[in-house]
Amino acid sequence: MSSKASACHRRARLPRPPSETHAARNAPRGFPEALVLIFAMIVAAQVLTYVLPAGEYQRDDRQVLAGTYHAVEAAPLPWHAALTKVPRGLEAAAEIIFFVFLVGGAIGVIRATGAIDAAIGAAIRALGGRPILLVGGMTTLFAVGSSTIGMAEEYMPFVPILVAMCIALKMDAVVALGMVYLGAGIGYGTAAINPFTVMIAKDIAGQDPSTGFGLRWALLAGMLAIGVHHILRYARRIEADPERSLVRDIDYSGGGHELSAADLTPARLGILGSFAAMIGVFIWGVNTHGWYLVELAALFLGVTIISAALGRVSANRTARSFTSGAAELTGTALLIGFARTIEVVLSDARVIDTVIHGIASLLQRAEGLGAGAAVVSAWGMLAVQSVCNFLIPSGSGQAYVTMPIMAPLSDLTGVGRETSVLAYQLGDGLMNLIVPTNALLMGMLLLARIPYQRWLRFILPAMVKLYVVAMLILAVAALMRFE
Questions:
Q1: pLDDT at position 211, please?
Q2: What's the pLDDT tens digit per position in 192-218?
Q3: 300-325 pLDDT, tens per residue?
Q4: Is the Cα torsion angle 71, 72, 78, 80 positive or negative in sign?
Q5: What is the rounded distance in angstroms from the CA atom of residue 140 to the CA atom of residue 145?
Q6: 429: pLDDT confidence band, cut at 50, 70 and 90?
Q7: Is 187 exposed, middle or buried (0-12, 13-18, 19+ CB in 10 A)?
Q8: What pLDDT digit, counting tens, does each position of 19-47 carry?
């Protein structure tokens, strides 16, 4: 058997992740899907337009001017607006939707070369005999993957492998899943260029993609230190006393998961290197030529071609992998379009500024706190985003529901638009660690055989620490009017 065929055979032995439908069985029964919730919000938004008075703020280059809200005349929406506005929402979000498809296709091709699996597999083999390095190295690797290209579902095949390794090292499945999912949650919460969350939020808020880039990497490092310490503390506790394991009564025998993955060949190293170079080129383009989503999508397409060439993937297989990768994000694309419809409904009825004015009026009650009013506003945004994530576990969908309101609100409260973006991504990423409506979390818990209630006992103390850091960062950002 050739080395290439052997690598493909080893990849085939990796456990397949459960489907979203299967994963969702572990979620609370009867809880509606995200698309159902968002469509319900569209209907609710239409009903709201019949109750709220129409009004508008004056704007200066998309920025809302405080004290300029005034009533306007607006015709009521027709009874069927919740249906007819959906195509308008899809059209309004077309640039982002097609961007998501192109990125999904690119990731599909890169995965087809085995480069991603090889990198993770090599890290597991290299760090497996050293628990401290294993926890630190793997958690960091998963976090960086989520922060840059929005990886999450791709980690599922490695959950059983890490479970088997951790058990062999006198740890347990909670440590294994902690490395994967705590890393992914921190990566999303502090994302630097995640195309499915922070880039979409920045586009809605009209922010420069490079703003706060260094801050987000520093925040990633700080939160990673907290996450790794939390996992290691638990691991040392159960190593000293196995009876303190949260899954001590669960049988993990007969798993049959082997530590195997594609080899990290020079070609695959070249693919990973080309992706790293793409990030550098994009940062340069943003700072020197004002690049944004169109150019970033083009760079992803370029990396797709380079990856296929280095990985010796045929043109036909490249096309199939690209199409398959894009198809996997159809649900995400539809959520984006439906979520954008909420803004279309409120804007067409000319009541979206009325909603912003109402929230701003509530927050203005904190003006007696002086500079503390901005801090309270930033914390309020974090709270709103955290609660919304229970209803809309899709990060991109949540961005389109909340950012059209939060971005102008940041102008009125003086916290800065970049602060509102930071509040969005922190609330989205960190709350993903516990929301039972997230099919990915429930699927990974199923793979690791960890009951949801026991996962909460492990992760909640870490979330408290991470939210304290998030609130401190948002307080500083608000006081500095982070633009």
A1: 87
A2: 888 889 988 998 888 888 888 899 999
A3: 899 999 999 999 999 999 999 999 98
A4: negative
A5: 9
A6: very high
A7: buried
A8: 343 444 444 455 567 788 789 889 999 99
Distance in angstroms (rounded) separating the CA atoms of residues 57 and 297: 34
- How far apart are the C-alpha atoms of 17 and 12, rounded to whole Å? 12
Full 3-state SS string of the chain: CCHHHHHHHHHHCCCCCCCHHHHHCCCCCCCCCHHHHHHHHHHHHHHHHCCCCCEECCEECCEECCCCCEECCCCCCCCCHHHHHHHHHHHHCHHHHHHHHHHHHHHHHHHHCCHHHHHHHHHHHHHCCCHHHHHHHHHHHHHHHHHHHCCCHHHCCHHHHHHHHHHHCCCCHHHHHHHHHHHHHHHHHCCCCCCCCHHHHHHHHCCCCCCCHHHHHHHHHHHHHHHHHHHHHHHHHHHHCHHHCCCCCCCCCCCCCCCCCCCCCHHHHHHHHHHHHHHHHHHHHHHHHCCCHHHHHHHHHHHHHHHHHHCCCCHHHHHHHHHHHHHCCHHHHHHHHHHHHHHHHHHHCCCHHHHHHHHHHHHHHHHHHCCHHHHHHHHHHHHHHHHHHHHCCCHHHHHHHHHHHHHHHHHHHCCCHHHHHHHHHHHHHHHCCCCCCCHHHHHHHHHHCCCHHHHHHHHHHHHHHHHHHHHHHHHHHHHCCCC
* Chain centroid offset of residue 56 CA: 32
CA nearest neighbour of 125 among 221, 10, 267, 276: 10
Q: How many residues does the chain have?
A: 483
The 10 Å CB-count burial string (b at 16+, else e) for 36-59 is ebbbebbeebbebbeebebbbbee
